[in-house]
Amino acid sequence: MSVEIIAAIVKSVLMIVIGLNLSVFLLYFERKGSALIQDRVGANRAGITGLGKKLGLPNLGIINTLVFDPIKMFTKEDFVPDGADKFLHALAPFLALFPVMITFVVIPFGDTISIGGHEIQLQAANLNAAVLYLLATIGIGVYGVALAGWSSNNRWSLLGGIRATAQMISYELAMGLALIAVITTYGTLDLQEIVRGQGGVYFGWLPRWGLFTQPLAFIIFMTAGVAESKRVPFDLPESESELILGYFTEYSGGKQAVFMLTDFAEQALVAMLVTTFFLGGWQVPWLYRDGFHLPGGAFIAMPALAVSIAGILAFLIKVLALCVFLGLLRWTLPRFRYDQLMRLGWKMLVPLGLINLLITAFLVVAVGSAS
């Protein structure tokens, strides 16, 4: 087996593992982080050795959240209501999670690294039209929640599925317009090239990140990404106070766990995509292949391997910080009404996306792309 094939397999598994581990971190942050922010104790009962308690250390809820809660969830009865379509009821969680998992593989998490004389791109699937691929895979996720709501034979589930479908389709349009503006700016559909286009600086000190070249697209994409992941303040499809749990009201056990994991995986995916398109991806400000070129002319030399590792760490730190930020939104903002949700998508984000795209196209024709 060639080095390229082995590297592709390792990179694919690595990106999926990173996505799953981020989901696990978000599960813990959802439980314990929210408790600390809201002045609650949170999960703190379970322990294994009891050593921490004997030493007077606080119980951080790690055993509760990452061990016993998943065990409890996956060992619950898998209940399927009477009249439900059993095949589609079982298929829906897979259709919700699978598109998210296969989207992780096109996201570049570093530049290149040399191993045994082979230059390896730190991107599992190096597609020259990766933006089209990720839009397609994100769109497939609609089928999972729609089928979950319809197949459950429950009016609340059906309403949740309808809400989720309308919401995800509406905000996909705004998300697509934001991405087209980014594509127009950098002149490529290749995610790795978009990240490379964000290297360098403006005015000798300002990073050429998408956040600074496309600030309005950043706001639109971030808002649409939160809506796509069905998180507060856009959690209308599963609003407990109205629809019990919306499209997965009739799910329990492992299937419910998969839907919950999908929510966290989508949040991690949104953080990765925002990092890739608007925060320079693996780019570190003022860091080039030979080291740091600091504002003012100072230079710090670095070996190529250290530069590659710094890029990987920068990508992970940016993604983690965005995940925390999205969690803070989850516990800070109130839920929209459904009419407000749709009005925001169709009457605000879509027109703003079109205006931003027209301005971008004019500037690209007049000045040239940012690549």
Short descriptors:
5% strand; 371 residues; two-stranded antiparallel sheet; single chain; mainly alpha
Q: Tell me, briefly, the overall form.
A: globular
Any idea what the radius of gyration is? 22 Å
- Give the low-pLDDT segments: none
Instruction: Tell me the fraction of residues in β-strands, as a range.
Output: 5-15%
What's the total helix number? 13
Number of DSSP strand runs: 7
Q: In the residues, how many domains can be counted? A: 1
Estimated helix fraction: 55-70%
Task: Order the strands across the largest sheet as they lie in space.
Answer: 5-6-7
Q: How does the major sheet shape up?
A: 3 strands, antiparallel
Give average pLDDT, whole number: 82
H/E series, N to C?
HHHHEEHHHEEHHHHEEEHH
Distance between the termini: 36 Å
Q: Could you say which structural class the secondary elements and strand pairing correspond to?
A: mainly alpha
